[in-house]
Amino acid sequence: MSQEERDARLGLTGLTGAEREARIRQLREEIDRRKAAAKAALRARRAAGGNTSPQPEE
To answer: What's the structural domain count of the chain?
Structure first.
């Protein structure tokens, strides 16, 4: 995938430098929120007696 294709996919095309940085920050924050929610769901499932095999949490 080319840089142009990645930028288009992430909604970065046609943005100024500041707008681009803000969009990247927004994308990272969304990823962090999803990651935290997934970790919380996994912990809850394990606490409820679900999959108890050890899994690394990053």
So the answer is: 1
